[in-house]
Amino acid sequence: MRRAPGRRLPHPGALVALALAVLAAAAFGALIAAAQDRPSVLALDAYLRRILVFSLAQAALSTVLSLALGAALALALARRRFPGRGLALAALGAAAVMPAIVVVFSVVAVYGRSGWLAVGLEATGLTLRPDPFGWPGILLAHVFLNAALATRVYLDALSRAPAEHWRLAAILGFGARATFAHLDRPILMRETPGLAGLVFLLCFTSFAIVLTLGGGPGKATLEVAIFSALRVELDFARAAMLAGVQLAICLSLTLVLHWAVTRAPVVPTERLPIARPDAGDPRLRRLDRAVLALGGALVLPILAATLEGAAALPRVFDRDLAHAATTSVAIALVSAVLACAMAIALAGAAQAARSRRRGRLAAAYDVLPALVLAIPPFALTAGLFLLLRGRVGPTQAGFLLLPLVNAIGALPFAYRFLAPALATSAERHGRLAALLGLTGLRRIAIVDWPVLRRPLAGAFAFAAALSFGDFGIVALFGGTELRTVPYLLYERLGAYRLDEAAAIGLLLVAAAFALSAFATRMARC
Amino acid sequence: MHTPARFLLAALTLASPALAAGLAALPTPAAAQERPTLTVYTYSSFVGRYGPGEAIAERFEASCGCDLEWVTADDAGSLLGRLRLEGASTQADVVLGLDMNLAAEARALGLFAPHGVEPGPLDMPVAWEDETFLPYDWGHLAFVYDTTRLDAPPESLEALFTDPDGPRVVLQDPRTSAPGFGLLLWSSAVFGEGLADAWAALTPRVVTFTTGWSEAYGLFLEGEADMVLSYSTSPAYHRSVEDETRYEAARFAEGHYLHVEIAGITQATDAPELARDFLRFMLSDAFQSLIPEGNWMYPARLPEGGLPESFEGLIAPDVAFLFDPERVSAQRRGLIDTWLEATTR
Predict the structure, then answer these.
(1) Is ipTM over 0.90?
(2) Which of B26, B203, B241 comes nearest A481 by C-beta?
(3) E strand or H helix at B207
(4) In what helix (H) or strand (E) does residue A87 lie, and over which residues does it extend?
């Protein structure tokens, strides 16, 4: 490729990557610097080794189950049109971003000792007592969240399949088997490494779900140890060190995943409505029915359990809620815009590197967004706060850090939605655009936008919903001014008002559902 | 071309720095304030819709000629974490809501000044001599149960821990929760050398260890466990607010560990006199009378009207345990390691 004359400006994605790296390094540095006199040498003791093994096992199993169910559900939803399909997609979107505390209580409401399942079993005369605590609860919660996420990502990818492929398949008379082998499988495989990395990291760093549903301290994640070092023992060096261990493990796993599978190129095409030739296959129809039933059986009860909060809804609508909702919406909008902008910049940089045949650099850009999940938000926030302290007041710091940390948390999701679309666009139109000399914003507007528009709606809604439901750092920086909706949930929970907390949880889920329905309409997938 | 969507995106992108700046500017208080402001850090449920915070602020402001501003963190642990992060730059004049088991760590931060307040006679099971912190309320840690589901609760901590057919309990993780750590201290007071074995015996009947009190109590109310670690005052909430008498706290023969909530003045305060006034006010009737049914704990000094009706009939243990904060701090890591070893055997 010819270089533009003069010095090349760095790609915006390179700046974003640099900024993220600097932010993380500065946060860690500030923590270690603040550790002062405590000489904290960290040996990985027996307990830490044990929870590491457990974390790896539960994250691996959760990932495999989530991706398998997600792929099957995405295929079934791609093949079938049925009334309520749009609602089902919106429900999946809402499930994928459900706040951990709501997931925990919903899983217990359905599968607990006095849950719906127990009541149902009792009615049929069975004396079995379900016990979700331990492996079942952790896997149920993780698969509930991440199968929903995987379905959305896979379905997005399937809907971008070139129309020529489908015409060719029709001409060649592909049966169900050939359709899967030659059309669907390559698309699913292409998404799998990135998605698997993301889901693995989500499960590996999962905190409240693993701790509460795990049933005992033997089932915990490093994140728990980091949290307790940071907050209870006030041992910043230990926290930074543990976070470093977590980062190293996640980095090596993500790298292995990314280098193990290479991305296949896509041929140029425009997307037209597709009639899938395999939709009529009777065996597939039975399979899809079973898959949809299974997906429904997993997702719907847990989602429906949030409706138990409806009774107390009238009592939570007050000035506090209006104030908190305004704050939450503003924070969610800022962090969603920030997350999408960062994702587009990074994906663009990855694409630019790929077109210059610098595969490793491109892979590094691909890895980076998921990797930010390995940085514990507590540690990141604490470190950044130490940097800000003295310059701005604590509440102002909260207002600055909350959107930023939420945006960073939403970045890997936004990237999962946006990067494949940008890659598709580059592979289809990249050469032509280069030939015509289209660059920068003009290129985005003319070439990328038509492909980007649909996933952008999804990414934006996802990031906004995720941020809207985030409790994380409000725990530290909440205040009478900085009160978000999840903060209210915990406030009521702490004052014995379980029913009002449930009502607020329902509102969070409803907001996510509305955002997801909006994105589904925008995308029409 | 889908212009509306493009327009929306462009508008949002342009607006986001402005929004962020607006957010950052929001909390700046109105200019030209004549009245001094007293900033008090506490945990969120204290000033929530049902907490006593708002009424306390009104009553204090009526006499102090100042504004009281509450700043909250999620719970006592977060409160301490936030103080540690803010260091000397903290805007807190008073910190209210740490508990005794965090007192040594809080003192070690070097952020607190001697309170210099003569507390006078207190109504607490222990004598008070701390020069940094003053108590404002207290309660016994206790196991709460539903009398319609459990008719014969254990009569001692030992029975609860060691009876293999005993009730199933939901507890809090001592690494993340104040009552969770309190139980670890309680059990170490009762079992001494046998602590690890006692925990190993109890573990099969622990439904789960939650991150905080709220999650555990929620799981108990949902019917996941026969008993939950909470406070001896919890049944008063159900009686008073829900008119529900089926929840009781079990009285244990060995005695109960105390949960004492404390407040202190920071060294960074620019209004030490006002801060001391607040601590004096904290031990007065105006403040203390809001505690029982606002924070669901015993007031540190009984207000003139005594305790509300809902507190009648609560258990009154003969023995109350409370370790010296410095001892708690020194033993923390060791106790948690013992607990980890015993519960993951």
Answers:
(1) no
(2) B26
(3) strand B206-210
(4) helix A85-96
Q: By CA distance, what is B53's nearest residue in A?
A: A480
A54 touches chain B (CB under 8 A): no
Domain count, chain B: 2
Per-residue pLDDT of chain A (525 residues; tens, 9 = 90+): 444 444 567 788 889 999 898 888 888 888 777 776 554 555 557 788 888 899 999 999 999 999 999 999 999 999 998 999 999 999 999 999 999 999 999 999 999 988 999 989 888 887 778 889 999 999 999 999 999 999 999 998 888 777 778 888 888 888 888 888 888 998 898 889 889 988 999 999 888 899 899 988 888 888 888 887 777 667 778 788 888 888 888 888 877 877 665 554 454 455 555 678 788 888 999 999 999 999 999 999 999 999 999 999 999 999 889 999 999 999 999 999 999 999 999 998 988 888 888 878 888 888 888 888 888 887 788 888 888 877 877 777 888 888 999 999 999 999 988 988 888 777 777 778 878 877 777 777 777 787 788 789 889 999 999 999 888 777 777 666 788 999 999 889 988 999 999 999 999 999 999 999 988 887 664
* Dihedral of the alpha carbons of A206, A207, A212, A213, in degrees to the nearest 10: 10
* Cβ <8 Å between B82 and A479: no
Is B21 domain-assigned?
no
* B78: chain A residues, CB-CB within 8 Å: 231, 475-476
My answer on whether B269 and B332 are in the same domain is no
Question: What are the start-end ranges of the H helices in A159-207?
Answer: 163-172, 176-179, 185-204
Structure tokens at B323: 């370790």
Q: Is A205 left (phi over 0), alpha (psi -120 to 50) or beta?
A: alpha
Q: Do A330 and B51 touch (CB under 8 A)?
A: no
Domain that holds residue B160: 139-258+316-343
Set of chain A residues whose Cβ sits within 8 Å of the Cβ of B14:
none
A107 to chain B, minimum CA–CA distance in Å? 11
Compute the distance between CA of residue A201 and CA of residue A198 in angstroms, rounded to an integer: 5
Q: Which residues of B touch A109 (CB under 8 A)?
A: 222
What predicted TM-score, i.e. pTM, was given to this entire model?
0.88
Structural domains present in chain A = 12-265+283-304+311-523 (1.10.3720.10)
Fill in the DSSP letter of residue A279.
G
